[in-house]
Amino acid sequence: MALVVNLKSLNLSEMMENKNLIDTIDKTKLPKHIAIIMDGNGRWAQQRGEQRVFGHNNGVQSVRETAEAAAELGIKFITLYAFSTENWNRPQDEVDALMQLLVVTINSEIKTLNDNNIRLRAIGNLKGLSPQVRAELEEAMGETAENTRMDLFLALNYSGRWEITDAMKKIAEQVKSGNLTLDQINEKLISESMNAPDLPDPELLIRTSGEYRTSNFLMWQTAYTELFFSPKLWPDFRKEDLYEAIIDFQHRERRFGKTSEQIINCKG
Ligand code: FPP
Fold it and tell me: In this structure, which CATH number among 3.40.190.10, 3.40.1180.10, 3.30.70.100, 3.40.50.980 belongs to the domain 31-159+201-250?
């Protein structure tokens, strides 16, 4: 009985803490797009004497919580780095387990995505995924296509350099066919040639697990993105961790090459 009471009061105080954190978020200055590098699944599992895939399985709950928290706040786009082109170099059994987890998770989350009015989308070299993963992904994207509250992007078989190379090829094709001159190539055109032209650059990039790298993620789009590094391993990442990152972001001065004085005068 005492244990039950303790657990209940713990949940209650956690809820209160979350509520207080949410209250300090300025809803008028939310980032439109948050990108997340979900790192630390393997270490989380190893700390518990388990296989790495145990960490990936537990990371799914963090994906749910993060997506839910973001949608509740009114964030319009979330991009999760779910599988990089470099991840194929992992042991085959881990790659297989990750792909299977994607299939199962995407399938089982369609209803929740629809209930929450969230649209599932993807970036990356999707042609390089297995027919089973592609079919599952395409089904889920089709079934959530009409949702409007938030776009949840999965970066799958993705790397920033691959995406930039892909964009360059599209542009080169247009030049080759005579539909584009060299003078017409500019930053706007390159942005529009990326995988999802309507996806705005992320204002905030979060990486978990205390590693300080961006690992070939959204290289073109993160030129002026604020970086937030969380010490938490991904399976431990919860709603309040997202709130903390957003609050930290809201206290930064984004200068885009200008001086601090210029920014302050512009606000005043
Ligand atoms: C990095 O941790 C994590 C990944 C490569 C995979 C992320 C996948 C999930 C969270 C599961 C499913 C996701 C979706 C969207 C359905 P790591 O293995 O590199 O950890 P380590 O650095 O501790 O080894």
Answer: 3.40.1180.10
